[in-house]
Amino acid sequence: MDFKGKVAVVTGAANGIGRATSAAFARHGAKVVLVDRDEAGVRAAAGAIVQQGGDALHVRADVTRSADVKSYVGAALAKYGRIDAFFNNAGIEGKFSPIAEYDEDLFDQVIGINVKGVFLGLRHVLPVMLKQGSGAIVNTASVAGLVGTPGIAPYVASKHAVIGLTKAVSGEVARQGVRINAICPGPVDTRMIHSLEEQINPGDPDSVGARYKGSIPLGRYATVDEIANMVLFLSSDLASAITGAQYVVDGGRTATGGAVTGAALKR
Ligand code: NAD
Question: Known catalytic residue: 102?
Fold first, then answer.
């Protein structure tokens, strides 16, 4: 996976999966544009890449605002002249709450960031890639885009929508040299999964984590670097025949339907 001379743009780059993937792109030779609404975080993430000898630019942007999206695309073009890889990744989990009690404003935020944010990224990055006649996009969905997890219905709906966008749009641009895929991580060891553990059982979040892990055949959450590996593969020329697809990285959980596995079986 050689990204020398290539330019990668990553949203949600200040933390978690986006930050690790930005660093991985840089380690593999890419110039990286890190985008996030968390200004201090995204500056620090880009600074860490530069400190390691990489080339990186950070842009503070809210992915739900088209002016901000235009400005991160413009900044990438002004500094590096092209966009070869786009990791359309920023997202929020919303709240763990039954839909009968779900806050309407929060519903709008979840859909706004997870769906409209992904749409705006496609809307403004695709013209650049179509003009180049090349490019690879990876949208962050989730296993919540494949199955329905009760308690986080707006998040589930948003991630199903990301898969829908990926499937439909991949067919619009494939003949023009642009590939679009989605990744479906299961639980990954970041702030997001720990926030859900805390919401489900504020008194004992670790017990929620233990239960989750008991339903993952590998017996653990994925690491951010394991998600980054999949993103880099799909963004690379090794994946030249892959478009419109969704790739699960979940330690086997979806395959076994969340059934209890491993040592937990004997309890
Ligand atoms: P995270 O909270 O650590 O990182 C998300 C980043 O997105 C943060 O830096 C945040 O500031 C940024 N962000 C949020 N809203 C934004 C906005 N409007 N504009 C710009 N930036 C914004 O979470 P993470 O686990 O790294 O999540 C990254 C993606 O992976 C999300 O789309 C999430 O839904 C998805 N995902 C995570 C898991 C998991 O278990 N952690 C599982 C499946 C999918």
Answer: no
